[in-house]
TrEMBL record:
Protein name (database record): GNAT family N-acetyltransferase
Keyword Metal-binding carried by entry: no
Keyword field: Acyltransferase, Transferase
The keyword Transferase is assigned to this record: yes
Annotated ranges, domain N-acetyltransferase: 3-166
Annotated organism of origin: Cohnella xylanilytica
GO molecular function, one term: N-acetyltransferase activity
Name of a matching Pfam family: Acetyltransf_1
InterPro entries on file: Acyl_CoA_acyltransferase (IPR016181), GNAT_dom (IPR000182), SNAT-like (IPR051635)
Length: 170
């Protein structure tokens, strides 16, 4: 069955999304239910869900920001981001274990990037664990450096995708 990707529509869907995140990430890395509600209420265009019939099988969410990287946003803080920020910080891409390896994560990532483009944003930022750097590179991101913090006991890398051409003066 092909998954349908669409914005989350209700608090119940956000509760289901949080359960999926909790199943995909360790407790130290998973966002709180309150953070999920905040992200959805504040940035509804950037809280996407993937459904197979009535079953949630994936999600991608982020916040707008003007920070240089997602670490500046405070990756798990409740009130991160800036509503008129020119960048999108992707905070989560999660896929049900039964659907991993079939391209759904890449489709969710592409969908949230497309929303950022349509929203006129300049860049998409994210932080990822070492084992995911190549996957994000294959999906159009480039690494910008190692983060000197071990949030959740793992090594983090900053990644970026520029959406607008930088123009030189003159």
């Amino acid at each position: 069955m092909t998954a349908v990707i669409r914005p989350a529509r209700s608090e119940e869907e956000i509760r289901l999304a949080h359960r999926l995140e909790a199943a995909c990430y360790s407790p130290e890395l998973a966002a709180s239910p309150e953070a999920f509600l905040y992200r959805w209420r504040t940035y509804p265009d950037y809280f996407l869900t993937a459904w197979e019939g009535e079953r949630l099988v994936g999600l991608a969410c982020g916040v707008r920001t003007d920070a240089e990287d997602c670490f500046d946003v405070g990756i798990k803080k409740l009130l991160g981001g800036s509503q008129d920020g020119r960048k999108l910080c992707v905070l989560s891409v999660a896929v049900d274990e039964s659907r991993r390896g079939g391209g759904l994560g890449a489709k969710l990532l592409a969908a949230i990037v497309e929303r950022a483009k349509r929203g006129g944003l300049a860049e998409v930022l994210l932080m990822c664990q070492s084992g995911l750097v190549r996957w994000y590179e294959a999906n159009g991101f480039r690494p910008t450096g190692l983060i000197h913090d071990e949030h959740g006991g793992v090594e983090w890398h900053d990644m970026i995708m520029k959406l607008t051409e930088e123009r030189l003066p003159g």
